[in-house]
Amino acid sequence: MEPELLGRLVDQYAAVLVLYARQRCETPEDVVQEAFLKLSVQKQQPKDVAAWLYRVVHNAAVSAARSMRRRRRHETVAAELNPPWFKPSPSSLLGVDEATAALQQLPVDQRETIVLHLWGGLTFEQIAEVSGISSSTAHRWYVAGLTALRERLKI
Amino acid sequence: MSEQLSDPSLDALATALANLQPTGGINRDRLLYRAGQASRFGWVWPSSTVILSLLTVALLLRPVPEPVERVVYVAVPAPASPQPPEPASAAILADDAWRGQAEYLKLRDLVLEKGLEGLPDPPPPSPAERLPPLESLFQ
What we know:
The complex is a heterodimer.
Chain A: H1 3-22, H2 28-40, H3 49-73, H4 96-104, H5 108-119, H6 124-131, H7 135-153
Chain B: H1 8-18, H2 28-41, H3 44-61, H4 88-94, H5 99-114, H6 134-138
């Protein structure tokens, strides 16, 4: 893969992919970096690069979370990492901390669907492909998640 | 970007959420550098793994040659009975060509064995070999 193309993909997808991976694991940057490295050595470029990246990041994040849980069982002290999910923006209607806290309380499937649709720009059909569910289920999770967020954020 | 929902308040919430910018902790330069490394040497490990795997399988599956038992008879010469070594001078005496040196070798053996004192007295000189008296030479 050409470095220019890879650079463009990093610029376009890296931040959202990190947010997506963060829903499952605590090392989202590593997971996303490995996904891009995997993409760079692909002999044939995937047909839908975005969907491919989300799928690879999803699998790696699940694997990383599993490893983290195994490791934590043997550790007495676990470092609590809670970096901000969003950049602070004074013009935003929502507070960054409040939005993050509200999102964190949602079930992981709903969170992932919201991240993929709102920030990743994936359609429900694409989300269905990435997550291995039907598009109607993806839509249902999305609406349920937004409804729960509205209640928590009192909007 | 998001699809319209039937509830406008949910749409407003979706728009507000979508305006938040995710933080991206990816070091772009480092990632591109590692990608360059991976694409340059990406074939080394897979190919070496394949070669070593094939070699291992070939070594495991190769036909092992059956050991052949052979009996080899080797003729061993009978050891010669030990004989006392003959003295060098006696061996030389047996050969007529070396007879002239026999006297010398006898004398050498005698000197090596007993020293100069062991030498026999020389035979008296013949009258022809006898030297004239010293006074006669000055006359």
